[in-house]
Design a protein that fits this description.
With about 475 residues, the chain is of the alpha+beta class. The protein has 2 domains: about 300 residues, Electron Transport, Fmn-binding Protein, Chain A (Pnp Oxidase, Chain A), CATH 2.30.110.10; about 120 residues, UbiD C-terminal domain-like, CATH 3.40.1670. It is built from 14 helices and 23 strands. The strands form 6 sheets. Strands 5-17-14-11-7-8 form a 6-stranded antiparallel sheet. β1, α2 and β2 form a beta-alpha-beta unit. The radius of gyration is 23 Å and the shape is globular.
Length: about 475
Amino acid sequence: MSELPTSLRTWLDTVDGFGELRQVTGAHWDTELGAIAELSYQRPEPKALLFSGIEGYPTGRVLTGSTGSARRLGHTLGLGDDLDDAGLVAALRGKPSRWAAGAADHPPVVVTESPLLDNVVDGKDVDLLDLPVPRWHAGDGGRYIGTGCLVVTSDPETGDINGGCYRMEVVDEGRSATVNAVPGKHGAQHIQRWFDRHGKAPVVASFGHHPVLLVTGGTEVPAGISELAYAGAVLGQRVPVLTGETGLPIPAAAEVVIEGWLRPDHLRDEGPFGEWTGYYSGRRRPAPAIDIVRMYHRDDPILLGAPPGKPPHDYSYMRTVMKSAMIEDALVNAGVPGIRKAWAHESGGGRLFVAVSIEHRYAGHARQVGHLTAQLPAAAYMNRFVVVVDEDIDAANLEEVVWAMCTRCDPKADIDVVAGTWGSKLDPMLVEGAPPYNSRAVVDACRPFERRATFPKVSTGDPDYLESVATKWAHVLAD
């Protein structure tokens, strides 16, 4: 049958067509594949890598780096295939709120045919290690099949569907996988509500799919909106799904899917794992493991890998761009005037360090923007620093932001610290066993409002004049 909408294989053909896919043959699943991917992310223009012929696996492939460039992310989001960084940011302006509003018009559509049904394995016969699941980092506690995954859950009362991206380690010699859902996230809330009401929770996990599901599963889609419907709004077409044993929707264009049940007493040791903060998170500890009732996969399936690590990592570019757009959108929609740009910096994993530039209009404006940004749903999880700068500072340029902090901020007067905010067990600063709070600093790095007219002038040339000089002397300034 022809490829379904949201097929990863169609996505790969397109990306290969514009030169951003590289084939890798013969890598070993045990750290070598992950090391190749890590080295690739550090290149100035990293490619997507499709690993095949993985040692010990005549079939089965692994894709990494799917959203690591403006062109690939622009294509994934249906914004265009030839965007550069600036063009992608411009194309994203206002889109998150429009996608959220359009999700209701793009609910998933149930289908009955799919290449995913070519191989259906009963739960007792499932061995996830028949797939080339990598051990990504040398310090990982095991092989992680869930890095670029989509874990589908539901609210037992409302029926609302959520899709989240959580780490999943293969356990029980391939017969199961853990689900490490972060407390406070919608998926974790769904699972707990099922536990409280029914003693078990249904779950579906897709391990290979169009990267739009990685994007929607890895960013904060507003509560009550299904990531599958949101993805449909992004692409302008409904996502096809199958209905399986648990009643949850199964992405029909996926490569590999398992479904089953989580139970509060069905735990397996999990971790550590190299996380997006750049550190291994914690010691080995119990996590819920899926009692798998069914596995579905295509022939020669492709696992979507998105291993985190010290930035830049697999999805740090994607998260930075998407979170920045969502935060800027939320600030504008909140009615705050003068918002120029919001940027969730990649060096902070797209979460820990957010800068916002404003046209400074009134006394208290900078503090208002800073405190609001720090607690926005799109930014609140594990945020540590929010810096507000003037409109002459590019919020996406970390050197300019730090310069503004150094020259326009009095630490005693211009930094507010808020305690007891939403942290994470992934925080390397969290003491073992302590509740996952963190504190965050709101930094006013704007010129004092009352001194805007008299504040020292910046000693740089007029931008228009500098541009004319650059044109005239291009032969001298060329690389």
